[in-house]
């Protein structure tokens, strides 16, 4: 507890005020003083109720500056598409054999991509992958015949997002070691993707609150006007 108290005492900046994006990024980086390269995370409160089908927000965004982390990609495909996935850098590739491994407890991956013809097999994994948010879905580009490009996108900084039960989107948009400009670009890309994914059932204010924080640091509110919200 003493170490945590010492850390919080070293924090700087007003966590109750609303800051322009550039200022919020500077504050988050200044307070990311752990002994490892902290992840920078964004939280966006949306004016939606995910319990209603026409108010669910889900999609994918390619972060221009990347994520700063090594994404392990599993691809469920066969024959030429399996070879394409391997050539693109997929970490594990298979068909029936991979499905059986996953059913047996293998979970050494962060993203699962599948070709459309394999979805009958993938359907068996719903109870395993669904609760972890890893089930392939055409809406976010993880069910696609273009597996090579999907693997490259995942490895290059493409991330999925979806609303939680409370209408909040959480996502990692970089690392504390990123430059301020790189983080700002990623935040703007994230907000732009959320605006494009605005559901038809959303009423009133869509993006209600945006905050940015590091893994071990405090959160800072961002003025929506500074990011096009």
Walkthrough of the structure:
With about 230 residues, the protein is of the alpha/beta class. It folds into two domains: about 15-65 and about 160-225, Ribosomal protein L1/L10, rRNA-binding domain (Ribulose 1,5 Bisphosphate Carboxylase/Oxygenase); about 75-155, 3-Layer(aba) Sandwich (Rossmann fold), CATH 3.40.50. The chain has eight helices and ten strands. The strands form three sheets. A five-stranded mixed β-sheet has the order 1-10-9-2-8, covered by helices on one side. The chain has a three-stranded parallel β-sheet with strand order 5-4-6, with helices on both faces. The chain has a two-stranded antiparallel sheet with strand order 3-7. Helix 3 (about 80-90) links the parallel strand 4 and strand 5. Helix 3 packs parallel to helix 7. The mean pLDDT is about 90.
């Amino acid at each position: 507890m003493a170490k945590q108290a010492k850390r919080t005492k070293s924090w700087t900046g007003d966590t109750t005020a609303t800051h322009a994006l550039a200022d919020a990024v500077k504050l988050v980086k200044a307070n990311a003083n752990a002994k490892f390269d902290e992840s920078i995370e964004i939280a966006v409160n949306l004016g939606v109720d995910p319990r209603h089908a026409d108010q669910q927000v889900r999609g994918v965004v390619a972060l221009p500056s990347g994520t700063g982390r090594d994404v392990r990609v599993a691809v469920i495909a066969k024959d030429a598409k399996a070879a394409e996935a391997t050539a693109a850098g997929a970490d594990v590739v298979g068909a029936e054999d991979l499905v059986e491994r996953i059913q047996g407890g293998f979970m050494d991956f962060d993203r699962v991509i599948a070709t459309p013809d394999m979805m009958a097999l993938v359907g068996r994994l719903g109870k395993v992958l669904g609760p972890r948010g890893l089930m392939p879905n055409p809406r976010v580009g993880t069910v696609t015949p273009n597996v090579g490009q999907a693997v490259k996108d995942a490895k290059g900084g493409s991330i999925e997002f979806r609303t939680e039960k409370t209408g909040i989107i959480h996502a990692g948009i970089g690392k504390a070691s990123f430059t301020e400009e790189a983080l700002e670009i990623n935040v703007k890309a994230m907000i732009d993707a959320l605006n494009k994914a605005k559901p038809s059932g959303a009423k009133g204010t869509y993006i209600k609150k945006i905050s940015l924080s590091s893994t071990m640091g405090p959160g800072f509110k961002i003025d929506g006007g500074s990011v096009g919200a």
